[in-house]
Design a protein that fits this description.
The complex is a heterodimer of chains A (about 575) and B (about 160). Chain A is mainly alpha-helical. Chain A contains 22 helices and 6 strands. The chains are: A mainly alpha (about 575), B alpha+beta (about 160).
């Protein structure tokens, strides 16, 4: 009776109220946990974005530094060239200066003689100084001095001196002498190890500077060189790799990730696709190169003297061996600047075109350099045409091989990784299958996530303890209250499961929508990238057609002796 | 005046004009293995290969023997020297068939569906065989030769 009375009197409203508050707090806590989870997700994606932005920044910074370094270094190299070889410049300028002064008889012979002798003192060891003294002495009719100076020039650099006087004699209209000097020059040449300046000789032939006889002799000699080289073991293989390298040097280093952002983000195959996009773009670049070579006027001549002067300036300005290491560094800097600071791309281009800056090269390499790298080999457009015509068969073969290897390297399967799902497509034709597979994957993950939304072991433990306590504490108000609180806590957790499930479903619905959109975008980009690759690949046919269309008529050159000759036909 | 200066040593050799341009310009005079491998394939050979797609060779031993004789005639000793393993071509039987092969090891012809792997030694030719620019691919031990419809060849070095 007394016990019943106590129970009757007990006021549980405060406890009830506290439990309700606790329930509300739990709801609020759950909401907060959800908010934190959402924030963590947002922070993670933000962090990934920041990481990408940071990496982009680092890459851009490295490029900017490389660019600035290359610009500074280029200036330094030019200064060094000026400091170490600047005095050569004056000697070089005077070569054509003396000839032009003699043409118009404006300068006294004494002045020319004195100037050339001063140069001899100013540029010790330089082959051109005694050659100029010889030239001045020749003009002044000082046989003894001329012979001694010439002997010294020949001692210093026989090949360049011979070529210089072959050109000077031609300028003076002394064809027999020119022929003799040319014979001397040609006789010294080994087709396996030619000096780079031989390109001046090819320029002279292509520009029609020499008389018909000399030109024919030179062309016949070059044909002999090719014949001699082709008899050597491994010639065809070396030609092939030489030309493949030369064609590869035109490969652009483009970045198409802005056009294919989804593939870049979701496909591990993207780097290979980008490499293939660049490789196939080689055809377009090569076609453009040869179109430029074969379009426009072959030569805009200003007369024999001007043509020879240009060749003389080229001969004395670009082919000195001691300058070569600096010229090579300068070229690398130029390529880094051209590639906007991308050192790796510049280095690979430099390595592919490095033979253009070798001191001694084979005649076929000289033709390759002249045809493909006129800026470093200093070949004129006429020479480029001549070299291309001579090498047409090799270029075609190398281009066929290169095209096949580029086609072989194009990835057949494009892998896609989307939120833990992996799939692959060839050309986007299996889009429906991919979407179904992705849907199944997300369904699977949803089922897993829903399965994980359940009462935990601690809930079951608390419930068990609560029931036990309730039974044991029958009549004990404190025990019963504690048991009730425990059971209520479990009930609240159970009631919250539905909310969690609804949220999981909503999250996965959003994820499904997002992933399917990303997949559709990826497939669309795969279709586009295949179309792009096919279009770039089709350009290979235009290179083939262009090279096959080369006819001897395109090398009909007008000389300065009122005769016309077709080099390709006579060669 | 000029003559005195220009009495240089005469040329040690005199250039000759006997070389024909075709030899010099193409450099194909040396009959190396590489050159022979690169030679344009004959129309008869291309035609024989095109017949492979008709499917008759799978069961008809006589047709297969005649095809093998045609290969012998076309490639001669290269076939042995370079170890021709087989030929892979694009299949025109239609979906789901993708490529057909002539395996010279087992002397058998087979048609393969999309996704079905080719014999190990011939699989590397699959990508090029399906390219519309090539009629078929000759697979050698250390290289492949892609042959176009016109008989033009392209050599791909390596076994990868």
């Amino acid at each position: 009776m007394s016990t019943q009375r106590i129970i009757h009197m007990a006021d549980l409203s405060a406890i009830n109220s506290s439990l309700r508050t606790l329930g509300r707090d739990l709801d609020s806590l759950n909401a907060q946990v959800d908010a934190v989870q959402h924030d963590v997700g947002a922070t993670r994606s933000e962090l990934a974005r920041l990481e990408k932005a940071f990496m982009d920044f680092v890459a851009a910074d490295v490029k900017a530094k490389e660019l600035s370094l290359a610009e500074t270094r280029q200036v330094k190299i030019r200064q060094e060239l000026e400091t170490r070889f600047g005095h050569y410049g004056e000697v070089r300028r005077q070569t054509t200066g003396i000839l032009q002064a003699a043409d118009i008889s404006l300068v006294r012979q004494d002045t020319i003689r004195a100037a050339s002798e001063n140069l001899m003192l100013a540029a010790p060891g330089y082959w051109l100084a005694p050659a100029l003294v010889a030239l001045a002495a020749w003009l002044n009719d000082h046989k003894d001095l001329a012979e001694r100076a010439l002997a010294e020039a020949i001692r210093r650099d026989d090949e360049k001196t011979s070529l210089l006087f072959a050109l000077v004699s031609r300028r003076a209209g002394r064809l027999a002498a020119s022929q003799q000097w040319m014979d001397r020059y040609l006789g010294m040449q080994n087709p396996v190890e030619l000096d780079r300046q031989t390109v001046v000789l090819i320029d002279a032939i292509a520009a029609g500077v020499f008389g018909v006889e000399t030109a024919l002799t030179c062309v016949a000699r070059t044909s002999d060189w090719i014949e001699e080289l082709s008899q050597r073991a491994g010639f065809i293989e070396s030609q092939r790799s030489q030309w493949i390298d030369a064609l590869r040097s035109k490969t652009p280093h483009g970045d198409d990730s802005a056009r294919y952002p989804h593939l870049q983000q979701y496909s591990p195959t993207w780097p290979a696709l980008q490499a293939s996009l660049n490789a196939t773009a080689t055809h377009g670049a090569v076609a453009q190169h040869f179109q430029a070579v074969f379009s426009g006027e072959v030569r805009a001549t200003a007369g024999l003297a001007a043509d020879v002067d240009a060749l003389l300036t080229k001969l004395v300005s670009h082919f000195d061996v001691e300058e070569l290491p600096l010229r090579r560094d300068e070229e690398l800097c130029r390529l880094i600047i051209e590639e906007n600071g991308d050192r790796a791309a510049a280095t690979s281009r430099f390595q592919l075109q490095d033979p253009a800056l070798e001191h001694r090269i084979s005649f076929t390499q000289l033709l390759t350099n002249a045809a493909m790298h006129p800026e470093t080999s200093h070949a004129s457009r006429a020479t480029q045409r001549f070299a291309t015509a001579q090498s047409r068969a090799w270029i075609l073969e190398a281009h066929h091989d290169l095209t096949a290897s580029i086609r072989l390297a194009v990835p057949t399967q494009v892998q896609l990784h989307l939120d833990g799902w992996e799939g692959s497509t060839t050309d986007g034709g299996n889009q429906a299958d991919l979407e179904a597979a992705l849907g199944q994957h997300i369904d699977g993950r949803l089922a897993e996530a829903l399965a994980s939304v359940k009462l935990g072991i601690h809930h079951w433990l608390v419930m068990g303890l609560g029931i036990l306590l309730m039974l044991l504490a029958l009549g004990n108000i404190v025990g019963m209250v504690i048991a009730a609180v425990m059971l209520l806590w479990v009930y609240m957790a159970y009631r919250n499961l539905d909310k969690q499930r609804t949220k999981v479903r909503a999250d996965f619905a959003a994820l499904r929508e997002q992933s399917q959109q990303a997949l559709k975008a990826c497939v669309a980009e795969v279709v586009e990238v295949r179309r792009d690759l096919a279009a770039r690949d089709a350009q290979s046919a235009s290179v083939t057609a262009l090279l096959e269309s080369i006819t001897p008529d395109q090398f009909t050159l007008g000389g300065h002796d009122n005769t016309r000759r077709i080099l390709a036909a006579t060669a | 005046m000029a003559r005195n200066l220009l009495l240089g040593t005469p040329a040690t050799t005199t250039p000759t004009l006997t070389t024909t341009r075709s030899q010099a310009a193409t450099g194909l005079a040396s009959a190396s293995l590489d050159t022979r491998l690169r030679q344009k394939r004959s129309p008869a050979y291309l035609q024989a290969m095109a017949k492979l797609d008709a499917g008759g060779h799978v069961h008809d031993r006589q047709a297969l023997e005649s095809l093998l004789a045609q290969i012998d005639q076309e490639l001669g000793t290269i076939e042995i020297q370079e170890r021709l393993l087989g030929i892979v071509g694009r299949c025109y039987l239609g979906h789901p068939y993708e490529v057909h092969t002539l395996d010279l090891g087992g002397r058998i012809t087979e048609h393969f569906k999309k996704g079905h792997p080719l014999p190990l030694t011939l699989e590397r030719a699959r990508v090029l065989a399906t390219h519309p620019s090539y009629a078929f691919i000759e697979v050698y031990a250390t290289r492949m030769v892609a042959v176009s419809e016109s008989g033009q060849t392209a050599i791909i070095e390596g076994t990868a």
